[in-house]
Each structure stands twice: as structure tokens, then as C-alpha cells.
Amino acid sequence: MSTELTLPADIRLMNLMAWVMLAVFAALLLNSMAGWAATQATFALHAISVTGELTHNNVVTMRANVTPRLSGTFFTIDLDRARLAFEALPWVRKALVRREFPDRLRVVLQEHKALAYWGGEGEPRLVNSFGEVFEANVGEVEQDAMPRLLGPDGQSAQVLLMYQSLRPLFEEMDMTLEQLELTGHGGWRGRLEEGATLELGSGAAAEVLARTQQFLKTLTQVTSRYGRSSDALETADLRHEGGYALRLRGVSTTVASAQTK
Fold first, then answer.
1. Is 157 buried (19+), middle (13-18) or exposed (0-12) by CB count in 10 A?
2. Residues near 111 by Cβ (< 8 Å), separated by ≥ 6?
3. CB neighbour list of residue 176: distance below 8 Å, 6 or more residues apart
4. pLDDT band for position 44 (50/70/90)?
5. Cβ burial, residue 52 (10 Å; 0-12/13-18/19+)
6. Do residue 156 and residue 126 come from a single domain?
7. Tens of pLDDT, residues 183-195
8. Can you tell me the distance from the alpha carbon of 10 to that of 251, in angstroms, rounded to the nearest whole number?
């Protein structure tokens, strides 16, 4: 005959608490050992692999500007801080940083692709293909000629989009739109490579494009009346209802007063 002895409730509770405390102690011990191991030289980073279409950055610049800002081992390095260190490099738009076991970081960089200057002459700001403004050494720009865009802060993407819409219209007339500005009052002002200034007016993009297209379609016809070609254009104001005003080089619309004796 067998007999089962039932422990009192308080004894069972004490045993359970002892097991819980033992489990917690073991977990803390394992965590402490893992933390200690992670900081050992065995897990030090030995290589950083960088890929991407890199034009303005190289191993020398990255070693000088990024390496001093990286600290920790393979397990302890802060990936967000490492990403920010790479994104602080000139011309870098975005960086993706991840660990690659056992001792390497893999970094994918995306550089800015400059499409235009932003702001006045001498300013170190450029506009990239996403319409974003960034600062860089403009002396490193590879394109021979880029347009200059101007406008209120936060409107660079809108100005770039308008420029990209207007440029083909002028190119059809063998003209080059070298500067476009969105004024504080919402009007558009352009400048041609030949030096002519254009007041394109305000309104929705479709309205501005329609006015510009109509102007360019009739420009040759108007200038030929005065024995001039379109490159004689000095100014054009498209803000007039149903028409525009021109000033041509070598043509005067001022009537001289009759001389009296």
C-alpha cells in the first residue's frame, strides 16, 4: 500500500519561488556572459564592405570621415549611428548598414545626382533628381552646364518639375532655359542662355505651360516683322490677358517728339 504525502501550500510556494529565482539568476548570468563575450576582441569588426554607384566618395574619404565615428564590436555597434556617420559624407543621400557575420559591416550608399543649382550665384546648394536640396562642393559637379533654380524654402521639387516641363518647349525653338525662379508671390520668372528675361506669370502649371507654348509658337512670326530673329529677344512679359509684351534688341517702340522751330 502506497501513501502520497501532500506538501503544505506554503512549502510548495517557497519551492516555486526558489525555482523562479534560480531561472532568473541563470538568465542574468547568461546575459552577462553574452555581454562580456560580445565586447571581446574575438568579435571585433575587421572589414566594412561598401557598395553603390559612388562618384564623389572613395576609400580615403570614408576612412578619414567615418571610421573615427564607429565604435563597438560586431554585436555592440550601433547601426543607426553608423548609418548617420555614412550619411554625413558629402554627396551621400542615403545609407543602408547591416551586420554580416562574423566580423563585417555591409554598407550600401546612394549618392545625390545633381540636376540643378539652387539659390543665388556662389551658394553651395544643389537640387538632386528627387527635387531635394543638398549642400556640396559645387566645384565637384561633373555636368558642364546645369540650370539654376530659385524659390521659397521647401518648393525645390515644384520648381524642378516646372523646369523639366518648360525646358522641352524652349529646346524646340533652339533656346536654352538656364534659370527658373518661383517668386514669393507665386509667379514664374525665367532667363534664357542668350540673356533674355521672361515673366511667365502665375497660376496652375497647365496655365503657365499653355501661355509659354503659345508665346513660343508666335515668337518667330512677331520678331520677323521687325527684321529680327528670336535671339534678339531681351524681355517678354506673358502676364497680359490674351497676349504678351516684348522687347527686342535694336527695336524701339518710342516715337520721337517732333522738333519745333
1. middle
2. 52, 53, 54, 55, 56, 57, 91, 92, 93
3. 170, 192, 193, 194
4. confident
5. middle
6. yes
7. 999 999 999 999 9
8. 110
Would you state the cell numbers that stand for residue 25, as one nine-digit string?
539568476
Closest C-alpha to 167, from 124, 116, 221, 238: 116
* Beta pairing, strands 133-135 & 148-150: unpaired
Q: Are 39 and 96 in contact (CB under 8 A)?
A: no
Asked whether residue 147 is domain-assigned, the answer is yes
The 3-state DSSP class for residue 168 equals helix
Question: What does the pLDDT average to over 77-92?
Answer: 95
Ramachandran angles phi, psi of 235, nearest 5°? -145, 155
Number of folded domains in the chain? 2
Task: Specify whether the CB–CB gap between 70 and 104 falls below 8 A.
Answer: no
pLDDT tens readout for residues 57-70: 988 889 899 989 99
- pTM listed for this prediction: 0.78
Produce one character per residue of 58-93: b if its CB has 16 or more CB atoms within 10 Å, e if not. eeeebeeebeeebebbbeebeeeebbebbeebebbe
Residue 192 vs residue 231, higher pLDDT: 192
Q: What is the mean pLDDT of residues 225-229?
A: 89
What's 103's domain CATH number? 3.10.20.310
